[in-house]
Design brief:
The protein is an alpha/beta fold. The protein contains 13 helices and 8 strands. The protein has an 8-stranded mixed beta sheet with strand order 3-2-1-4-5-6-7-8, with helices on both faces. InterPro entries: 3-OHacyl-CoA_DH, 3-OHacyl-CoA_DH_NAD-bd, 3HC_DH_C, 6-PGluconate_DH-like_C_sf, 6PGD_dom2, NAD(P)-bd_dom_sf.
Length: 291
């Protein structure tokens, strides 16, 4: 099956990043969100990111224009699902919300449409059970920032067909990504490692081992990570990081127990970039933290 039309549901950090690489790859891409403001931000983000790519010699002017011409927005999933070949769910990590999105996508999309989720923790078998096409449901896990990170983690559920995996693999490669196929298990591969590193960074910050800046700098320069774990937590949202850790703690045991400092930050509403303050204060120095 040839994929031409892709719908991305959720205009947050991950959703708009996925929509960006999808449109850049030449897919007619529609991003759906209930917030008009979020959708306006999507287009501005794509324009700004592509312009930076042109300035740095990563993109041509023609590629930038091509990207913007292939990127569309909508507040109505039911309408755009009708023409979708692939629908990628990228809403917050809440089961009921994902269930709602997948049920609507399943109900209104054509029989051939593949349904993928960008979840970092939830079982693809469970996600497939929300639909009447479990064989066409899988996890398609991107990484942040999507336009820079090369990996897509493909996770099969119990009923996921090989054809579905092959379609997702082909689409990922056209987006310029490399893929790994992972057996279903809590946290997959990357989320388990990332959660441990991020949680340990919070423990070190709590214990006064080093400042947040020096912890992140040490990991970036010493371990060659593109972004420090505390910076990354702020970028994806400390509430999302905490929810992932709670799930992994429940399913995999004590080593994933969230650091008390992380829980304090979330209780205080310090969720990261989206609230203006997390580990770092972005109201005064946000631009300095851009990598």
């Amino acid at each position: 099956m040839t994929i031409k039309n892709i719908v991305v549901v959720g205009a947050g950090v991950m959703g708009r990043g996925i929509a960006y690489v999808s449109a850049l790859a030449g897919f007619q891409t529609t991003i759906v969100d209930v917030s008009e403001n979020q959708l306006q931000d999507v287009y501005q983000h794509a324009k700004m990111t592509s312009e930076k790519g042109v300035q740095r010699g990563k993109l041509t002017v023609e590629q930038s224009l091509h990207l913007l011409n292939h990127l569309h927005t909508s507040i109505d999933l039911e309408t755009v699902a009708v023409d979708a070949d692939l629908i990628i769910e990228a809403v917050p990590e809440k089961r009921e919300l994902k269930k709602h999105v997948l049920e609507i996508a399943d109900m209104h999309s054509p029989a051939h449409t593949v349904l993928a989720s960008n979840t970092s923790t939830i079982s693809p078998t469970e996600l497939g059970s929300y639909t009447k096409r479990a064989e066409q449901v899988a996890v398609m896990h991107f990484f942040n920032p999507v336009h820079k990170m090369r990996l897509v983690e493909i996770v099969k559920g119990l009923e996921t067909s090989n054809d579905t995996v092959n379609i997702i693999q082909d689409v990922s490669e056209k987006m310029g990504k490399e893929t790994v196929e992972v057996n279903e298990f809590p946290g997959f591969v990357t989320s388990r490692i990332s959660a441990l590193v991020g949680n340990e960074a919070f423990h070190m910050l709590q214990e006064g081992v080093a400042s947040a800046e020096d912890i992140d700098k040490a990991i970036r320069l010493g371990l060659n990570y593109p972004m420090g774990p505390l910076e990354l937590g702020d970028l994806v949202g400390l509430d999302a990081r905490l929810n992932n850790l709670k799930y992994l703690h429940e399913t995999l045991g004590e080593k994933y127990r969230p650091a008390p400092l992380l829980e304090q930050y979330v209780k205080a509403g310090r969720l990261g970039r989206k609230t203006g303050k997390g580990v770092y204060d972005y109201t005064s120095k946000g631009e300095l933290m851009e990598k």
